């Protein structure tokens, strides 16, 4: 009930507050997926009423396109969609709900989410992705795109600009996908999946985050080193979706998990370092207090 309390004031600041919901909302037992190796297999679900805690924390936009939305089969996925609909939280990412639109303070938002997993809208099907994104662009002021992509693990924090494989699965090329999405009409691209924080980027005045890390987990997770830190990224956008400025707030998870503010600002420092190594040509500047601004021309870092 209280796992999100330490950071809820930050989440509530946003007109739109996005997160990736990894797992299903399902009070019933359901039919859990079968795993060949239980030691590396996770099945995630939360009781139906946990949606109230998401609402109370301020989340009002969720991706359900990830490798855990089918952990309890079609019943779990369908129940999650039903509960989110009842709670009034826009969501997308499955064949049943490939995209959505909603209005906030006179701005029409479009949202779609992509992943490499069964039943999700595929991250590697660029033709279909372009079709969805361009359609949203035609009916929305600001288009937000989410992707669950990139290889997983503490050593996978770099943007390789190549196709990434994890456990034999094609997890897409996050760098290429983000640019394709913006070319098709996206205004913000938010990545997750590697379980570590990655660099941020800007392309055609549109913001990209390649991975938002492990944010709010509980139990049985490796939260050491880069696995236990995550940014909350605040974005200020114009009405057409172009980037004005932003700010990075660092969080960490202690003990069995749950986000609290990290006074050491490790997620911020991680992003600054990854910008230097992975996106040295970026025109984004990140100050020591987390403020993100844009230069008019690229600078070496």
Q: How would you describe the overall organization of this protein?
A:
The chain has 301 residues and is of the alpha/beta class. Helix content is 22%, strand content 27%. It has helices at 8-12, 51-57, 73-87, 126-139, 174-184, 266-278, and strands at 18-20, 24-25, 45-46, 61-63, 91-92, 99-104, 107-114, 142-148, 165-166, 169-170, 188-192, 200-203, 206-209, 229-237, 243-253, 259-261, 284-286, 291-294. A 6-stranded mixed sheet has the order 6-7-8-11-13-12. Strands 14, 15, 16, 17 and 18 form a 5-stranded antiparallel sheet that branches. Strands 1-4-5 form a 3-stranded parallel sheet. A hairpin with a 2-residue loop joins strand 12 (200-203) and strand 13. The mean pLDDT is 95.
Features:
single chain; 301 residues; five-stranded antiparallel beta sheet; 18 strands
